[in-house]
Amino acid sequence: MRTLVLLPGFMCDKDLWTDMVPDLESLGSLHFGNVYQDDSLEGMARRVLGEAPDRFVLVGFSMGGFVARILTLMAPERVSGVAFVASSARGYSDEERERRLKGFRPGDRPPREAGAVSTAMGLHPDRETDPVLLDRLRGMQRRLGPEVRKRQAALVRRDGYADLERIACPSLVVACRQDRLRTFAETERMAQCLPNSTFSILEDCGHMAPLEKPRELASLLTSWVERSGL
User: Fold this and answer.
1) CATH code, domain with 168
2) How far is CA 97 from CA 33, 91, 127, 157, in A?
């Protein structure tokens, strides 16, 4: 029985995948990786490995893609294939890390003025004020709370593009055309560095692909899994 291990992004919980579950369950059982109790990518990877089945297909979204890269290199014999969604292998600058430690995410805007309309830079510009999507994003952040935010904000992300060359299993890299938190070039570069990769693009999609384009993303994953014989 195939298992998919799903790794979420910064301050995202299980609800990130809710709309994709019906389609992904047709591929096998789903395991939601725990990236909430550690303050290093290596610690997260070890915890996920400790709770995951012996062999699995790994799917990492955004921050989860950084964990997925390290996990795959840590235990290549256990990962049959790895997918990186709206992710990167670019290291953070000192300025970016400092901003995260102060409570801001890359791309955050200055605090809103009273009465201003709520927006989310992680969403496509046409959906950045969508009340349903905004409520789901806020709900995940509320449930995870300040301690998880502090741990995840403290993560050190070093450049890992050279490491990608050592990942031999089938890989999928998905870029989102209107992603304002992750440049198209840095995601595309992942596919160029991976030796056995497929590169796909989600059009009309911001950073939050599992929320914005769940059916389309699930279809890309399904086609890749089946085509790669995973």
Assistant:
1) 3.40.50.1820
2) 24, 10, 27, 9
Residue with tokens 């070890």: 46
Burial of 210 (0-12, 13-18, 19+ CB in 10 A): buried
Residue 188: C-alpha distances to residues 58, 116, 172, 199 (Å): 19, 35, 11, 7
Residue 113 within a domain: no
Is 160 part of any domain? yes
Mean of pLDDT values over 201-225: 97
pLDDT of residue 159: 85
- List, in sequence order, every residue forming a beta bridge with 174; answer none if it has no partner: 85, 200
- Do the domain assignments include residue 83? yes
82 has which bridge partners? 58, 171
pLDDT in tens, 53-96: 999 999 999 999 999 999 999 999 999 999 999 999 887 766 76
Q: What is the mean pLDDT of the chain?
A: 90
Q: What is the DSSP letter of 78?
A: G
Q: Is 229 left (phi over 0), alpha (psi -120 to 50) or beta?
A: left
In a domain? residue 45: yes
- pLDDT tens track for 96-107: 666 665 654 444
Single-letter amino acid, residue 26: S
Range of the domain at 8: 3-93+153-228
Number of domain units in the chain: 1
